[in-house]
Amino acid sequence: MTSPETVTWLKERTSLGILSSEVLNAIAQVIEEQVVSAETDLVSEGTPPEALYILVEGQLESNTTNQTNPALACGFLPGAVIELKELLLDELTPFTITTVTDCHLWVVPGDKFHELATQYPEIAQAFSRQLAQELAQVTSALGYEQERSVALRPYLVTKAQRGIVGTSRYAVRLREQIRLSAADRKSVDIFGEPGLEKDNIAALIHFGSPKRREPIIKVNCGILQTSGADLFGRAGGKPGLLEWLGEGTLVLNNIQELPEELLPSVTQLLKTGTYTPVSRSGEAAVEPRPSKARILIVSEKTQPTIERSVGHIIKVPPLRVRKADIQAQVEYYTSLYVRARGVSKPHITPEALRRLQSYDFPGNLKELKNLVERAIVQAEGANELTEEIFWPAETKKKRFRVNLLNAYPSLRQFLRSPWWPDRINYGFTATAFAIIVAVLFIGPQTRDRNFVLNLFWAWWWPFFLFLFPFLGRIWCSVCPFMIYGEITQKLSLWLWPRQLKRWPRQQAEKWGGWFMFGLFTLIFLWEELWHLENTAYLSACLLLLITAGAMIFSALFERRFWCRYLCPIGGMNGLFAKLSMTELRAQQGICSASCTTYQCYKGGPQKGEGMETNGCPLYSHPAQLEDNRDCVLCMTCLKACPHRSVEFNLRPPGIELWTTHVPRTYEVALLFLLLGGIYLHRLPELQSWLGLQLDLTQFWQHLGLSLLVLIIPAIFTFGAYGLLQVFNKRKSRSFVELAYGYLPLVLGGNLAHYLRLGLGEGGRILPVTFATLGLSGEQLPILVAHPAVIAFLQGATIMFSVLMTILLTQKIAKQPLRTPKGLAKLSLMPQHLAAIALAVSMWAIIVF
Q: Which residues cross the membrane (predicted)?
């Protein structure tokens, strides 16, 4: 077969066109025509080549079993030359070629082609030149791709982190918007509040589009050059990101931070799909260049200029309007975390879920994710994520707070130093306590001759009762009971290495408070019936019993289980600490967004500014605290925190009692027990005031009257609440909630009682100390207040306390003292009258 038309066709339509006309004419002379029907294998993979095939009409398709090189599978159109390389290099056919349609082929038998290749070396040389050109093209393309990869690598988004979780109408609509946006190449504006993972939505759009195999990069607009050179490139110089990106996707993150100088250029890109490279001053104007990149914009608010230029607008709904999706989000984040860590998946309790759903989440999904991960860490392998593990932030919490650590840097330095409280505890308190107990046992047994009894009853009680409104539970940070508990814990672990028991939290929360109540009742009765105030060895026994409880439970359980749940003194301290004008808390925004160590709670090695600690002794997180009950001001969290999140705030006294406070029945029982204790301490005066003729030297009469005195104040206040319910037409708060209103009166009444000892006997400490040592101290100075001064201070304390009780009760009930018309509010009058009656009775038995 030979004709000028055949040679011309070979030269113009095939890769053999690089050969001379003489060679093409020789090839044309040996060509045989062949028609192959559809769905027929023309050549088979792994077989020697039989002929050179030239496709004239029709369509061929190759396929291969080589999974490492899928590029071998391709299609062939007219003009394709098949088996040329295999014939020249004597290789096996790398793939099977099948006819897709009926095909017209020109065939050069293999033996004849070898003869031609031998006769015309130009064939092999031309093929070598062709291979060299192809290799050069591949090398050039590879070099370009390497440069492109280097340029885009810092901005690449490799995958979408997660899908849209939830079944609410907002989640369904958001998924539909993402699907529609992924279907075309129009630009998209994605805006919404912080923490909504808007950049992840941009990634979902890209990876759901037909161009998913093209690169997607995310550029923070706040770091772009004002000239735009990094985005648009320079004329005649370095290409910009748009040029390197090709048909990929550009995510402009935080568009509100875009330099104003670039706003016109970005608007031009969105409207026309063109951009102008940056040129130097004095250079000729540069023509705009087309860009095939897709633009996705992420912002917190819509930008009016840009909004008019984009094809799709997606407003991402905040989490507070998607409360129905919170459970699904929590389950999803929990699954992700436990799968990554290889731990068992905990179950979230209904109470915890309701608490999360009642919170507005200003940090949105990011805050929820951090809360879930933190809760799993704090649960430490537990099967449930309970309500107490989660801590929603208070949006208005910063109001009325002053961080004393910022106002007084020297205070921060001291509280982070080894002096507070370790050196004080182990260098002074532990030794002093041992001496005190020894003196109580071997020294004189009356308060006027034993300086330890004087210190305990005339100094310790009034001083710390006075300190509660200022520093809360600070006594517990230097308490000798727990110092010996910690010594016992460390010593027992050294002698008997073991894993201490974890806290039985549920049982302790349910019964621990009632244990404290019962123990405090016994202490009150012991104090009254056996005159502990004036019997040294019995006071020592009381101290040793409380210390023994701390030591026993410290040997069994982790950290300070006794302090948090069982110690009667700690229970009283935690109750009165609610009235404190100071608090230790954490900046919840920092904890939720930045903290990954949880060292304030768990403990850990030194990290940054955070010191090495064993974690909070009461297993409390400063961002989790709702009141001062479970904070002993040991400052472990302040020392451990590497982010300066912990604050020591000045605040309105007792503010949490009418804001975030959670009432507890056992706390109310302890409150009324302490109220009855005021009357129990004044039993002779009470008997005289009421005109009772009971013989208190008789044990059973004394015990019966003591029990009545402890119970009657609680019955009296409950009766006042009953009247309140009768006269109040509107539904009022529960008795347990309103009972906390009596807390200032209880504290004030106890302080008024101990003022007599503090101001009347505390100043005799020097002669009493000499008397303890068997010396005469009659000539030593004393400093005591006049009885009239003591009575005045006691009365002033009671009056101030009842006033604070009335104000606090109104706050807890969320009722103003006066109506807008200026009329007094009468709905809480029964409880106010009860508080006044209690104050009058205290005045009668304490002041007079």
A: 424-443, 463-484, 511-530, 536-557, 665-683, 703-723, 735-755, 784-808, 828-846
